[in-house]
């Protein structure tokens, strides 16, 4: 890939932009051509579940991309190391907005693990580099990336994951209301979702999206736990 990286000023972000578009297209094409002929709604959910930074960063860790990552930011290295350790402990690929969190006794302290965007970017940029180095061969890119993506494609096709925020809003379209972000004393973000008549649920994270997802998950757990059980004959 010497041609791609011949200029030190040519940042990997250009390749990341290219790789993102390529992987989006290839995964979408594969899902569309699936013999199971998924409905448009399922296709949308599957693509969202498979084409996102959480999945790409998780795969980058699984295939040791992080061991070759170079950066000068100690904070970024800390975030990457935390994510790597979590993935090794979990030993399982995570889906879109899945439960990347560590639970503590105090629910206020339940916090999502930050997914380092840089890891997902590297996964995408390599796809862009392979595309350029193979004389713009989409087939070559897919030959490299499909074996890595296949277990997740099959797993999610069998059980399509959904965003907890979307699931909550579908369950409680009129009564679930999210608050604006609040800053905690240590600089993190707290979001509260109120489900009218059923309670308030808080989530904490390093960003609004993470905190919002955490709050939605907590609300869903409570709502599902309190749903009336269907009596079996």
Automatic annotation (TrEMBL):
Residues 1-135 form the RNase III domain. Pfam families: Dicer_dsRBD, Ribonuclease_3. Transmembrane segments: none annotated. GO terms for cellular component: cytoplasm; nucleus; RISC-loading complex. It comes from the Eukaryota. GO terms for molecular function: deoxyribonuclease I activity; metal ion binding; ribonuclease III activity; RNA binding. The keyword Glycosyltransferase does not apply. One of its GO terms (biological process) is apoptotic DNA fragmentation. Residues 160-225 form the DRBM domain. Keywords: Hydrolase, Magnesium, Metal-binding, RNA-binding. PANTHER family: DICER-RELATED, ENDORIBONUCLEASE DICER. This is Endoribonuclease Dicer-like. It comes from Notothenia coriiceps (black rockcod). The gene is LOC104963853.
């Amino acid at each position: 890939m010497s041609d791609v990286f011949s200029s030190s000023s040519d940042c990997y972000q250009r390749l990341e932009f290219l790789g993102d578009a390529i992987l989006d297209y290839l995964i979408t094409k594969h899902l569309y051509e699936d013999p199971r002929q998924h409905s448009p709604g399922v296709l949308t959910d599957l693509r969202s579940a498979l084409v996102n930074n959480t999945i790409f960063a998780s795969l980058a860790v699984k295939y040791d991309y992080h061991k070759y990552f170079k950066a000068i930011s100690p904070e970024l290295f800390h975030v990457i190391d935390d994510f790597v350790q979590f993935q090794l402990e979990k030993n399982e690929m995570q889906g879109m907005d899945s439960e990347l969190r560590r639970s503590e006794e105090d629910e206020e302290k339940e916090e999502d693990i930050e997914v380092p965007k840089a890891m997902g970017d590297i996964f995408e940029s390599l796809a862009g580099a392979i595309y350029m180095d193979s004389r713009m061969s989409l087939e070559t890119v897919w030959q490299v990336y499909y074996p890595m993506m296949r277990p997740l494609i099959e797993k999610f096709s069998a059980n399509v994951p959904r965003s907890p925020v979307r699931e909550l809003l579908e369950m409680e379209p009129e009564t679930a209301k999210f608050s604006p972000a609040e800053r905690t004393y240590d600089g993190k973000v707290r979001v509260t979702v109120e489900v009218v008549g059923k309670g308030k649920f808080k989530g904490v994270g390093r960003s609004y999206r993470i905190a919002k997802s955490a709050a939605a998950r907590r609300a869903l757990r409570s709502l599902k736990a309190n749903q009336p059980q269907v009596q079996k004959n």
